[in-house]
Amino acid sequence: MFVDTSALYALLVRSEEEHSRVAEAFKEALRRGRVLVTSNYVLLESSALLQHRFGLPAVRDLETRIAPLLRVLWIDEGLHRRALELLFATDRREVSLVDSVSFLVMEGEGIEEALALDSHFEKRGFKVLPL
User: Distance between CA 79 and CA 50 in Å, rounded?
Assistant: First the structure.
């Protein structure tokens, strides 16, 4: 299962409307022994968002409590360039470069499910949790 920024943010920010649903889906995936995959781009985006809104303690929380539970795939230049091509071909302002990278990672790894609150994953054909 791929873990998106939207899910990481909701998981770490208890005041988020979807916190409980995301936390339960995350815990259930771990209980079932699911491999939770993300990219260094998602971690970077999540860290920047958390730091801007809540400061470094939130980033430390992400890095010490959550990131060790994830299999992090590191994006190389070739995948970055392919994601840029996808971004430009998609030509939609609301789909980000990080989303494009995530889609390509999921397709390349054969991952069909995303823990995400971002509807772009569903539009791309992935199953999105929490339901």
Answer: 25
pLDDT 10s digits, 68-105: 999 999 999 999 999 999 999 988 788 999 999 999 99
Domains detected in the chain: 2-129 (3.40.50.1010)
pTM above 0.85, yes or no: yes
Query: In angstroms, how far apart are the furthest CA atoms of the chain?
Result: 39
Question: Sign of torsion, CA 45 52 119 90?
Answer: negative
The pLDDT, as a whole number, for residue 131 is 66
From the list 110, 85, 107, the residue with the least C-alpha distance to 95 is 85
Q: In 10 A of CB 16, how many CB atoms?
A: 16
CA dihedral 54, 13, 131, 63 (to 10 degrees): 70
Count of CB atoms within 10 A of residue 95's CB?
17
Q: What sign results for the dihedral spanned by CA atoms 88, 45, 34, 10?
A: negative
